[in-house]
Amino acid sequence: xxxxxxxxxxxxxxxxxxxxxxxxxxxxxxxxxxxxxxxxxxxxxxxxxxxxxxxxxxxxxxxxxxxxxxxxxxxxxxxxxxxxxxxxxxxxxxxxxxxxxxxxxxxxxxxxxxxxxxxxxxxxxxxxxxxxxxxxxxxxxxxxxxxxxxxxxxxxxxxxxxxxxxxxxxxxxxxxxxxxxxxxxxxxxxxxxxxxxxxxxxxxxxxxxxxxxxxxxxxxxxxxxxxxxxxxxxxxxxxxxxxxxxxxxxxxxxxxxxxxxxxxxxxxxxxxxxxxxxxxxxxxxxxxxxxxxxxxxxxxxxxxxxxxxxxxxxxxxxxxxxx
Length: 323
Ligand code: DGY
What we know:
Strand content: 5-15%
Order of helices and strands: EHEHEHEHEHHEHEHEHEHEHEEH
Shape: globular
Distance between the termini: 28 Å
Bound molecules: (2R)-2,3-dihydroxypropanoic acid
Structural class: alpha/beta
């Protein structure tokens, strides 16, 4: 019997691609140019498994294409708001993601952005790069102390908890959070974390707010003008979740008008096309969606997809099945 046909939509780490080649009749994407909607439809019609990632929009139009051969979509990424899950379900497609393996690295990036924003690191680096630094002075680029402050988490899943561990045990921060579901009490106790009743309570109490909720319609513009106004003027907002969780026009206004002190962003509404007004602001640190970008994690993400499709082709339930 011939090997199953697998289509990968973007370039993956070389060692995972080598494994794919050994196991499957695989079509890789050497050019790394994202597939168009028509190409994604064709992939669904010609492969047994399609392996997209967070930049591929698998809309209902794409997923509803006729004469599909694909039975499984193995997403390379923990977030899967790029896939219209209801349509996938209705079409009988199995969808998997890559949880666990990117937890620490994404939490590290959130912590990095928190520190960059608090200590005005981007502004400082610009001063050096633009050759405008005239030397040390007592009033230069004075930021906010991090140690001992309150970190407010919106969402309390794996990545939020990993950030809380780093912030609490490494920086002595007090942890408060909002989560729609009640987390394990032993986890809360180990972090001396307090669950708040509302998002508003977290925003008004925390010195640093970090977003860790999934993207999608339910959380679109969760952080809007009204909520940004509840934050302390000395507070910082960190987003490593999904860009559309924050209303970027409202955030730009908040940063310009000093409702909050700063922001650290790894994700953007409509990325990679971010609102150009962000580029004119001094009090924002901007990274290009680097959350999981370490050698170890990207290989582990690929291996997780491999394990999921291997289980499927062996007639078993993939471990990371989301639909
Ligand atoms: C994810 O996995 O959802 C990230 O955004 C990309 O690593």
